[in-house]
Each structure stands twice: as C-alpha cells, then as structure tokens.
Amino acid sequence: MHSMNLVEVLERSPLYQWVEVEMDQSASIHSFALPTFSAYCGRCKAERSFGSGGRAWGGGSVSDIVLRGKTLAAICVCLHCHHFWRGYILHFHEDGTRIMKAGQYPPWDLSIDRRLTKMLGKHEGIFKKGFICEAQGFGIGAYAYYRRIVEMIIDELLVIIESLIEGAEKDRYIQALERVKTTRQTDEKIRLVKDLLPSTLKPDGYNPLGVLHQALSEGIHQLSEGECLNRATEIRTVLVFLINQVQHQKEERKEFTEGMRKLLEKRGQAPSGGTQQA
Ligand SMILES: [Zn+2]
Questions:
Q1: 206: confidence class by pLDDT, cuts 50, 70, 90
Q2: Which of the four CATH numbers 1.20.120, 3.40.1360, 2.30.170, 2.60.40 does domain 114-259 have?
C-alpha cells in the first residue's frame, strides 16, 4: 500500500484503493476540511487550485462524529473562476490510518499528449485501456496493458534514443542495439542498453530504463493487485517521460538544424561585402 497525503489522494489516487494517510486522529466530520489541491479546470482551461471551502457532507452514524468508518462527499470549486466544480467521495477506514477514494467527478482525463499519441500510433487504444484500469485501481489489468505497450514500441524507442547519443557513447550504444536484435524478450532488450542512456534522459540520476527494466523483469504472479498497480504506475510514468523527452529532443534538434541551415543559407546568399558576386 502506498502512503500519500490528502492532496495526493485528491490529485492522483486511483479509485477503490486503500492508501495510508497521516491525519488528525481526532478529526470529525464537523471539523474536517479538505486541503487545497491542483486539478484541471474545464472553464479556465488550465491547471488551477481547487478547494472545498470547508463544505463536506458525511455519511454514517449521526451519534458518532469521528471520521473512522465514514464516507464523506465534497464539492471542490476552482479557486480562480469559482464556477467549475469537482466532486469527490472519500471513505475513511475504521483504523483511522487509511482512506479510499470511492468516487470522482469528472473522471481522470483520458486525453493524451500529442507526442504520446504520435509515438503510440495504433497502440493508443491499449494505452487508454491501461489508463482506465489504473484509474479504477485494477493493477493486474493496468500492468498487463502497459507491458504490452512497452513490448510493441520498445524497438522504435531504442532506435530513436540512438539518434540522441553522440561521440564514443554512440558506438557503444549501436553495438548494444545489434545485440538487442538477437533477442525477443523485452526486459532483456532493455537490460542491454539501459546503462548506455544519455544523461539528458536521466533526470537527477534516475535511469528510466532501469526503472522500466525492474518493473518488467519481476514476475507479477505472486504480487497483489496493489503491488501490480504500483508497477503499472511506474511503467506509465517512465513511458510518458521517455516518449516526451525523446520526441522533444528530436524536435528541438530538428528546429536547431533547420534554423542554422536557414541562417547559413541567408549568409551565403546575401551579398556580404560583394565578395561572393559571380
Ligand atoms: Zn476555473
């Protein structure tokens, strides 16, 4: 089970998963206030802060006002336009240390980033199914769908990474890519190249291919739904990061080369001091 604070629960916890939260043990339905958190506002068309303004409605026995074992509904309003609202249902465990998000409206946004769509191509539908499973807390399903995506795009992804490497590193990477072609196992492919990833693709020293390799190589047969869900979230996070970074760097490089070419052409064509006149 992962541990989150209430803001994280509201922003990104999947439905129907118990998450450990640190909360005021004496909090009652009457004193409990939801924190301010960030979410997309459909009216402002941007990420905004949302707050419940202290309003929340509790369900359960009226005589017992503690939150344990209670379900609470809250409407949170965009603090910028005060118009767009989001609804949440939170269920508090009897033990006072766990919360389950039992409802959310609007649901998680399934619109996918344009770079991701480009790379996923015809596999986009599978990615969305994985995302729906993840949002509902179906860890085994989410893991299986995301794993399938990795299997289908890994070859292309590794080739694109090659174009971002320069110098002696590039030769080592190309040699590793040759070995990649001899295996059909996705985790083995990743193992062969993971340590050759350029530093621009390793934020703060984290190696996304290393994380991906670990998430894929452990058998999930003996893992619980929750543990599979953690692995699934890791896979999705790494995939989204890698695809975005790789495509972004590719686009930046193209823009730079084209811009440079245009500048140099201009210089070549411009009669600079008349020296180039035929
Ligand atoms: Zn708004």
A1: confident
A2: 1.20.120
